């Protein structure tokens, strides 16, 4: 199982927080009329995913095939993907017939993919691919799905999402977008610069946001394209995502009109479709990573002796790991609560902001305590705990810094108060 139990590497499903038994065994019709995936099938998928990550992926964590900032190369990732295909765990949250697991079921599986930082790219649940597949599956035309989504689901193509910009452009405030687009016959022409574009180097599919006279627009494009120039891929605190976080320049990129998602001016609408699930899947994956860090730290403190007894028997150490169990459980429940909101059909904008803040801050505490109880061993590259700490520190910023989400929630509190005064 995905374990938050103090015993390292414990397996076997703990289903105490799954849905009730009648839901567990039933095939439930979804809002769009398709048949949902049963919980029994979800448990089986999760078992296979966890076994694959623990038995196959984790031994690759010391593989030297890394780029200039220690991110895994595509050679390494696609070797793992071949093994994932053979094991039947490629893109495990999307069924061969196109059905998706519910968000609650996705959480159950994605936490297990996160047990290694290499797990999500290996089984194709990593950002930005997971969010891009979700978006194209929801709003892409049949033609766009066949051309762009299919190779992504098969694990044959990585993708990138081009929204964030340098030089005072779009970031936490997407309305500041400077990249422009205009119609030219049956094409659109895009110009601008983008920054922190995860996975751009080596990606085969791109989703590009730009601003027309009508408002934001979203396009699906083939990569690489000579009109999209990678200027640099900076070193960053995290190193789990293939392709890094590039700064790119877009010079007169011509895109056929039928590769626009929706119509001109509807880009932010489609971004909202992607936003909340993408935030939440970050929480799912990094919860798995911190569960692994807790396992490693637990094993360490039960073996390491100091002052006549094992470290776990020193209250200052044992209490930190106890606090980790509490934070991990609270984070898990927050993820499941938000997933249920999304499964109800809501966009879940407020709920995903709350979950992103609560989970990222809790996981930062977990990772920090794991480093602390391991002492010098926790700050070297010899332990996965050191990488988990770095990755989770970056997670507090990605998909919206904590402070931006709190500010957004405070605005809602003010709006709700004003509305109450008027009633």
Description:
By secondary structure, this protein is of the alpha+beta class. The chain has three domains: about 20-125, Acyl-CoA dehydrogenase/oxidase, N-terminal domain (Butyryl-Coa Dehydrogenase, subunit A, domain 1, Orthogonal Bundle), CATH 1.10.540.10; about 160-265, Butyryl-CoA Dehydrogenase, subunit A, domain 2 (Beta Barrel), CATH 2.40.110.10; about 270-420, Butyryl-CoA Dehydrogenase, subunit A, domain 3. The chain is about 50% helix and about 15% strand. It has twelve helices and nine strands. It has helices spanning about 20-25, 40-55, 75-85, 105-115, 120-125, 130-140, 140-155, 265-305, 315-345, 350-375, 385-395, 400-420; strands at about 160, 180-185, 185-200, 205-210, 215-220, 230, 245-255, 305, 310. It has a four-stranded antiparallel beta sheet with strand order 2-3-7-6, with no helix packed on it. A three-stranded mixed beta sheet has the order 1-4-5. A two-stranded antiparallel ribbon has the order 8-9. A hairpin with a 2-residue loop joins strand 2 (about 180-185) and strand 3 (about 185-200). Helix 6 packs antiparallel against helix 8. The chain is globular. The termini are far apart. The model is unreliable at about 1-35 (pLDDT under 50).
